[in-house]
C-alpha cells in the first residue's frame, strides 16, 4: 500500500494511546507497533519483575509520552495519569497473568484482574476524549469442558483456578461497563480480547514453557514439563497485538456504533493446535534443546484449550500470517540473538515487526 499502512492501522495512526501493562512482555511489543504507526503512547504499570526483561531492554528516550510505574488499583493516580495523556484509545493489558502464582496468592489475582480492570474502566469512562477501550483477557475465561472443539465467544465463562476465575470476573466487569456504565459516562466503546497462549521473544516470566525452555538452554539445565500433552492455541505475540489493534480500529468505526457489547477470540490460524510436548519438539529443531523431564503438576490445568477465531476473521479480517511453526522459528531466532548479544535482539524485534506487517500487506 502506498502509505505503508495496513488497513486497520489507518484509524489508529497518530492517535494518543494509553497502555496499562506497558512494562510487560506483550505490552512491549504492542508499544513498538503503536510507535511504528506514529502513535503517542503513555504507559502505566508496575515495574518489571524479572531480570532480564523486555522493558529495560527497549528503554530509550522518547519511547513514551509518559511512563508511570504504579498500581492500577491506585485509582486517583491512575486517573490523573490517564487524563494527562489525553488518550483516544486505551489498551488494558496490566494483569497478574500466571496460573501457578494465582494458587499461591489468589487475593492478588482477584485484586489485580477483577478490581484492577474496574479501576481502569472507571477512569476511562470518566475522561473526555476516550473513544475506544480494549480489555485484554485470556482464552482461559471459558468454563473448561475438556471438549475437543474450539470455544466460541458465546460459550459460558468460568474458571476452576484463581487466575481463570479472576479473568472471567474481568470479563463480567467489562460487560457491565459495555452495557451500562459507559453510557453513564463519556460513551466510549469497549471490547474484550480473549487471547490464546502468546509466545515470542522477550518473555522471561516464571512457569511459562518458552521462557523455561530458554532458561534451561542458557543455564545447561533440565526442562521440566508439568503437562506435556496439554493442547494450547499458541500464537506469536505479534499475532495477539494484531488482534488488539484490529479491535481498536473496529471500535473507532461507525460499524461499532450499532454492535453493542462485543468480545473477540484472538488466536492462531492453524487448524490443529499443538501440545506442549510438540511445541518443545519444534523448539528443539531450531536450537540445541535441553533434556526434558516430566513431573506431575501440583495444581489443576486444563488439558485442551482451543479458540474459534471465525468471528474475528469474518468481521475484523483478522488472520495471522504466521503458522505455529513460523511462530516458533521467529521466537527461537530472537532468543538466539539475545543470548549472543542483547543489542541484536532490539534489531530483531524491529525486523520481525516490519516483516509481520509486510506479510499482512501482501496477504
Topology of this protein?
Blueprint: E1 16-20, H1 25-36, E2 40-45, H2 54-58, E3 66-69, H3 75-85, E4 89-92, H4 99-104, H5 106-125, E5 132-136, H6 162-181, E6 189-195, E7 198-199, H7 209-219, E8 223-225, E9 231-232, E10 235-236, H8 237-251, E11 262-266, E12 274-275, H9 276-286, E13 292-294, H10 310-316, H11 324-340, H12 342-362
Parallel strand pairs: 1-2, 1-4, 2-3, 4-5, 5-6, 6-11, 7-10, 8-13
Antiparallel strand pairs: 9-12
Helix pairs in contact: 1-8, 3-5, 5-6, 9-11, 11-12
Brief synopsis:
With 363 residues, the chain is of the alpha/beta class. It contains 12 helices and 13 strands. The chain has helices at 25-36, 54-58, 75-85, 99-104, 106-125, 162-181, 209-219, 237-251, 276-286, 310-316, 324-340, 342-362, and strands spanning 16-20, 40-45, 66-69, 89-92, 132-136, 189-195, 198-199, 223-225, 231-232, 235-236, 262-266, 274-275, 292-294.
